[in-house]
Amino acid sequence: MPEAIKIENLNKTYLLGEVPVEVLQNINLTIDEGEFVTIMGPSGSGKSTLLYLMGGLDQPTSGKIRLAGTELSGLSDKEQSIMRRRQVGFVFQFYNLVPNLTVEDNILLPLLLDGKKAKEHQTRLEEIMATVELTDRRKNTPRAFRWSAATGGHRPGTDEQPGHYSGGRANRQPGQPHHGRSDAVIGQDQPGTGKNHCPSESFCGDGGLRQSNYTGAGRKGMG
Amino acid sequence: MEEAIMKEPGGEMMGTILKYILKNIWEKKFRTFLIVIAITSSAALFFASNAIAGTMTVMYENQMRMQTGQASLLIRADDQSPSRMFRIAADAVEGVALTAGEVSMGGTYTVPRNGGESVHPETAQLQIRGFRLDDLDVFNPVNFQQKAVGRPFAGNHIILNQRFADQYGFQTGDVINLEIMGSKRRLVVWGIARPTGVFQDSPQSETRTAVIPLDYASSLSGVQGSVSTAYVVLAPGADETQVQARLEAIYSRYDVSPPFSPEDISGMLDTIIMPFFLMTTMVLFISVFIIYSTFKVITVERLPVIGTFRSVGATRKTTDAVLLGESLAYGVLGGLLGLGAGVGILYGMTSILANDPWSGQMDFSMEFGPGHLASAFILAVCVSVISSWIPIARVSKIPIKELVLNLVDNHSRRKNWKSVAAVSLLLFGTLAPRLAPHILALPASALGIFATITGVVMAVPLLTSAFLLLFGHLYGLIFGNEGILAVKNLRDNKNILNNITLLTIGIAVLLMINTISYSVGVEVLNAYRDWQFDLMVSVAQADRSTEQSLRAVPGVASTYAAREQWGEVTVSSHEYPLRYLQGIDPLTYRDFIAFRPLNGADADELLTKLGEGRYIIPASMMQKTLQLEVGDALTLEMPGGPKEYQVIGFYDSMMMNGSNAIIHQQYYRSDMGNRFIDTYFVRIDEGAEADQVLADIRSKFQRRGFWGQTNQAMEDMNIESNKQFFVILKGFSILAMVIGVFGVFNNYVISFIERRRSLAIMKSVGMSRRQVIKMIFAEAITGGCIAGAVGVLGAILMLLGVPYLMDATNVPIGIHFVNSFFATAIQGGIIIAVLASLSPAMKNARMNIVEAIKYE
C-alpha cells in the first residue's frame, strides 16, 4: 500500500515566554492510503500539534513530513497553499468557519481559491450538502452558530425565532473542504468532544466519514 | 446579596477600576492617540472659532480706534447741520474729560525735479489735520520716530508720516513747501510720526496724513475758533449715553455718536465667523463618529472582562463607570491638549485675517478668557462621554449569562429603520432650505446641510450594498475568485462600513469647501467681468466739466458718470437697508455695466421704462429676500424725504452681495439731492495701459480730492481677501480629513485583528499569501471607490443646499461644480484605503495559521 503520510524524526518546540516546551519529540509515523487512524493521548500530549503539522498548517522545529510523497518543508507558500486546498481536509476542534460566507461558499472555498468556477461543481456541492443535511440552509451564514447552539436557536436580545442551524450542524461544514479532491487527507481534531460534538452518526461515524470521502482510494481520516 | 450587588463601588474598587482604565489607555496607544486627536481637534477648533469673534472684534475696534483713539463720542456735521464747521462749547459738560477739535484740509507736495519743468510734475497728496498736540497726547498719542527738541508744536510746524518722510527724504527741522487751499505754504518739519494712530493710512490710499497745530489749520482755512470734528473723551466713570444726551442738547443740529457701534463690527464679522463654526461642527461630527465607532469596538473587546466583573458582584453602574471613566479620561486629555492646540490655531487664524488687503496689516492680540477655555474643555469632555454612551449603554443591558457564556451577537444587523431615517433625512435636507420661509432660511438651510450629510452617512450600508450589487460581478472579472470573495467580505462588514463612512465624511467636507472656495473665486471674477470698463475714479465735487477734462486725458476712450449711493438708503416699506443704489443713464449704462434682466425681460425696454417715472429695478437677491413681485411699491428713505418707487423688473447683479437696485438718474438727482457725480467709469483705448492712464488722470486731478483704481487691482484685492479666508477654512477641512484618515487607518487595523481568524481559516483551506494580499487589495480599492463615490454624492447634495445657506446669510453665490475635484476625491479615497490596508494586509499574509486559530 502506498504511503499517504510519512513522518521522520519529527520535533516541535514552542517557546512559552523564554522557556522552550518540547511538544513533540522524535515522532516517526507512517500512514498508508485508505487507512483510518485515531491518535489518542492525554490533554497537552501534542495530538493537535501533530495534526496541524501533518496538515501543513504549522512548521516543524526539525524532522520531515512527506504528504503523498511530497516533502512539506521544501515547499514554498504557494505550493503549501495548493497542497492544503487540494489534498487536505481539516475539522478543527472549535467552529472555524468564515462567518460572512454562506454554507455553500464555505464548502466551495478551496475550489474558489483554486481558481475553479463554482458553477462547474454544483452537482458535487448538492451531494455534499445532502450528505450533511444542510441543503435547506445553504444560503445561511455561520454567524448565528454560537448563540443558536447555546440557546436552542433563540437569538439573545431579539425576538427572532430559531431558524439557523445548531452548533452541531455548523460543525459539519469543516469536514467538507476536501470536496473535489481524489486523494485528500482529512484531519479531525477531537471529533465528538467538547464543543466539537458530533451531531449524527451519518456525519461523524466511520461510515459517515467514508461516505463524505466519497469514492476512490487514498483518503485518510484521523482524529 | 441583592443589596451587595447594588452597592456603589468602594474606594478599593474605584482604585482597581482606575488602574484598569489607565492600563487600557496605555496599552492601546494608537487607539488612544486616535480618540485623543479627534477630541483635541474638536476642542481646538471650537475654541478658535469661539475666540476668533472676540479677537477679531478687538482687532477691528483697534483698527477703527486708530483714528479716534480714546474718544468715546464724535461730534460732526450731518445733512441737517447749518455748516460743516462748529464751535466747541466753552462751558464744561458733566462727564466730559476732554473735547478735542480737528480742522482738516488737503495739501499737495510737488516733488522737486531736476531737468526743468514738466507738464505733469510728480506730486504727493497729504491729508492735513489740525490738532492740539496736548489733545492728541490725551486721546490718541502720536508715536514719534523723530521729534524737535526745545520748541513747542505751534505756528507753521508740521508732523509728517514716516512713510512720506522716508519717501521724500525729510528730517526734523527741514522745510517743506506745500500747496494748501490754493496757496503755497512753507512749513517746518517738527516731527516724524510712525504710521499708527491718526497717521495710519488706508493701504488703498496714496494720500498720507500730516498734522499741523489746530490754530494754524484754523487760520489757513479761515475758520478761526471752529472745528469740523470734535473728539469727546469721557471722564472716568461717566455714562456714555447720558453724556451723549447732554452733548446732543448742546450741539442740537450736529451728529453726536460713538465712532462705531458694536453692531457695525458684529455685522462685519458674522460672515467670517459663521463658516468657521460650520466647519467646526463638521469636525465635531467626524470626532463623534470616530469615538462612537471606537467605543463600539472597545465595549465588544471588554465583554468577557465586563462579564467577569459582573459575575463577581460588580453592578451595572460599576461596569458603566469603568467604560465611562475611560471615555472621561480621553475627554480630559483631549480637552487639555485641545486648549493648547486651540491657542495655536487661533494665533494662526488671527495672523492670517489680520493681513486684510482692504484695511492693511492690523495689529492683533488674541482675546480669550476663562469662559472660552472652559467651554472648549467642557465640549471635549461632553463629546467623548456622549459619543461613547450609546455603545456603553448597549453593553450595560446585556444579561450576565450572555456575557459570561459569550453569547453576545456582535454582528451588526442591517437595520431597516436606518434606511428609512436616511431617506427621511435626505428628503428633509433637500426640501427644508427650499421650502422654508425667508425668516427661517438660515436655520433651515444649516439644518438641511447637516441632515443631508447625516442622511448620507446613514445610507452608507445601503449604498455599499447597491454598489456591490451593481459592480460586484466586475470584481470577479478583474480580480478573479479573490475579487468575488472580496465583495462577499465587504457586505455587512461593520469595520469596512465605518471606514467608508469616515472617508465619505472627510471627502464630502473637503470637496464642499474646495468647491465653495472655487465658486467664490468664479463669482468674484464674474462680478468684475460685469464691469466692462477699466478704471473707476472719483473727483471731489465732480460735474459735467470734470467729465470733459477726464475724457481729454490721453488713453481715455469713454466715460460714464455714475451716480451711486453706498449704504444709507433704507427701504422703509420693507425695513430693509439697501446697500447700493444707482441712478443710471439708460442710454450709456449698458456700455459700461452688463445688465441681465430676469424672467426674460427685454433689457432695453426695461431701462427705457425707468425714465418714465419713479420706477426701480432691484437685484435678484433683493427680490428673494423681500419676496418682491413686479408692481410692488418700495418706499425709499431719501434726503428729499420718503419716495415711493414701483418695481418694474429684476436683474442679476451681485454688487454688495445682491443688495442693490437701479433707478433713473433724473429721479436719483432730485430725490437724493446730490448734484455732483460720485464716480466715473472709464474705458481706455485699445492698447493703452490701465495703470498709465490712471497715473495720468491722477496727476491731472491730484489737487481735487482724487481717488482712482484699476478694475484689475480691485479684483486682485478681492481675490486675495477671499483667499485668506478660504485658507483657514481649507485648513479646517483638511484637519477633518486628517482625523478621518487616522480613523480609517485605525479601523483597518481593528478590522484585520477581528478578521484574523477568518483569514486563518481561509489560509488553512489553501489561500496563499499572494491571494490574501490580492483579496485585501480588491477590498481596499472597492472600499475606497465606494467612499469616494458616496463622498462625492454627499458633497453634491450638501453643495446643492449651500446657495440657500449663503442666500440666508446675505452672501449669495452660485455653486460651480468641478469634475476634476470629484475625480481627485475618488482617487484619494482609493489611495487612502489602499495605504491603510497595506500594513495589516502584509502582516496577515504572514500570520501563523495555528496561532490565529488555536489561541484566539
Key descriptive features of the protein:
heterodimer; A: 223 residues; alpha/beta; Rossmann fold; 4-stranded antiparallel beta sheet; 4-stranded parallel beta sheet; 8 helices; 22% strand; disordered C terminus; B: 856 residues; alpha+beta; 4 domains; 6-stranded mixed β-barrel; 6-stranded mixed beta barrel; 27 helices; 23 strands; disordered N terminus
Q: Helical region count of chain A?
A: 8
Q: And the CATH topology of chain A? A: Rossmann fold
Shape of chain B: elongated
Total discrete domains of chain B: 4
Multimeric state of these chains? Answer: heterodimer
In total, the number of strands of chain A is 8
**Which H/E pattern describes the elements of chain A?**
EEEHEEHEHHHHEHHE
What features would you describe in this structure?
The complex is a heterodimer of chains A (223) and B (856). Chain A is α/β, with parallel strands linked by helices and 223 residues long. Chain A has a single domain, classed as Rossmann fold. Chain A has 8 helices and 8 strands; from the N terminus they run E-E-E-H-E-E-H-E-H-H-H-H-E-H-H-E. Chain A has helices at residues 47-54, 77-87, 103-113, 122-131, 145-151, 167-170, 201-204, 206-212; strands spanning 3-16, 19-32, 36-37, 62-67, 70-71, 88-91, 185-188, 220-222. In chain A, strand 4 (62-67) and strand 5 (70-71) form a beta hairpin. The relative contact order of chain A is 0.17. Chain B has 856 residues and is of the alpha+beta class. Chain B has 4 domains: 1-69 and 281-410, no CATH class; 72-258, no CATH class; 460-534 and 711-856, no CATH class; 540-705, no CATH class. Chain B is 58% helix and 16% strand. Chain B contains 27 helices and 23 strands. In chain B, helix 3 (29-68) packs antiparallel against helix 10 (370-396), helix 8 (262-311) packs parallel to helix 23 and helix 16 packs across helix 25. The longest helix of chain B is centred in the middle third of the chain and has 50 residues, at 262-311. Residues 1-7 of chain B have low confidence and may be disordered. The interface between A and B is large, with 42 and 39 residues.
